[in-house]
Amino acid sequence: MALTARLDLAQRQRLAVSPQLRQSLAILRLPTAALAEEIAREAAENPFLTVADPGTGSSAYDYALATTAATESLVESLHRQIALQRLGSVEQAAALYLVGELREDGYLDQPLGELTDAAGLPRAILEAGLAALQRCEPAGIGARTLAECLELQLAEAGLERSLARAVALRIDDFALERWARLGRELGLAPAELTRISGLLRGLSSAPVRDDRDMVAMIVPELVVETGPQGQISVVPVHSAFPRLGVLDARRDTLDTDALRALYDRASLMVRGVAARSETLLRIGRFIATTQSAFFLGSHDTIRPVTRAEAAAALSMHGSTLGRALAGKALMAGNRVYPLSHFFSRALNGPDGRVSPFDVQRRMRELIAAESADAPLADEVICAQLRREGVDIARRTVAKYRKCMRIPSSFGRKRRKVSTQNQPRTVHKNDKIS
């Protein structure tokens, strides 16, 4: 029996609850440029939605279109792939809802049990929607753990799903080349283990790579301004979107259901965009308060603040905050920063918590000061940071180095040139400030 058929009347009614909230959350999730496109599409189809120039000259969105290539976004790609699957309307709605819950790296970190209440959907329907989402490209999308991400990628590479799951759960054994144990537990010949090991080396630790769906220009929706007395203010970028309104008409005078539906769509979009702006402004003010040293200084240090801490301080659900941060940015000092730039998991440092941003800054200093003939390996950088009081693992050092697009010590040695006449040395007494 299809899952749709198992829904009782009460469950079906829950799917239609609060269209305004659903529309607001969908609008909040869209990156700035994608929302501008959605506004233009709706305005072209809906005579009740009025669009006026913001009155500030060329908009930030117009500039972005002139300087970036038009590509299909990840959200658009997932929506297209889900629409191509033979899903019932309810399963499709669940899959599309889960797209909005994805982190920027493609992981789904909200437990399905929590999403059941938030979405107003039964657990079985969400599981069906998740299965549909995980059938999409890129392989691993919608994974909830690293093991599940690897499992989905291995299955895409041709492994039977149960074998892919067993391999993903034994990733440490593959890394340590425990062939005898793997042969016994998986029942595979050495040649097959070697083939799977090669597959593992080509997999990604996240469904979405850092450079996927990135464009050369991120349109800021907020500006952080500093005054002569050290005061900080946050104002919206009014040119990011046109001014929206609803055509002056009485809904009860419209003579067809189609016209009333268009009127309601226009009203929902206007209210949704306004709610989005208010939410982003609240988040921007929180960032300005917690990161005042960043905005008043030289933009070289960030206080460690987690998303969970921010959500609690703003009385906001974690998934709502995640939607608000995705693809959004602010401008400060003529530079554009993604909102996610100001949130991170803290590391233990010499004077308490330290942000990954500050650790990466210190890593840049160490690498800039290294000898051209003997660049610092990740293990050496890790040891130096530990001497300075930072609790960090070597794999984290390697991850940060890759995020900063800095080659390995071997790659740097090949790229270093002899023009560095007097290379500086690393001083053990240098600290993370």
Descriptive notes:
The protein is of the alpha+beta class and 433 residues long. It has three domains: 17-68 and 215-344, no CATH class; 146-201; 347-415, Arc Repressor Mutant, subunit A (Orthogonal Bundle). The protein contains 21 helices and eight strands. A four-stranded mixed β-sheet has the order 3-2-5-6. A two-stranded antiparallel sheet has the order 1-4. Strands 7-8 form a two-stranded antiparallel sheet. Residues 260-414 form the RNA polymerase sigma factor 54 DNA-binding domain. It comes from Defluviimonas salinarum.
What spatial order of strands do you see in the largest sheet? 3-2-5-6
| Contiguous uncertain segments of 5+ residues | 1-17, 57-71, 211-216, 417-423
Percent helix range? 40-55%
What is the chain-wise order of helices and strands? HHHEHHHHHHHHHHEEEHHHHEEEEHHHH
Average pLDDT number: 79
- Supply the number of structural domains: 3
Distance between the termini: 62 Å
Shape call: flat
How many DSSP E strands?
8
Q: In percent, how much strand structure appears in the residues?
A: 5-15%
Helix segment count?
21
Alpha-beta classification:
alpha+beta
The rounded Rg comes to 25 Å
Family: Belongs to the sigma-54 factor family.
Protein name: RNA polymerase sigma-54 factor
Function: Sigma factors are initiation factors that promote the attachment of RNA polymerase to specific initiation sites and are then released.
Region (Disordered): 411-433
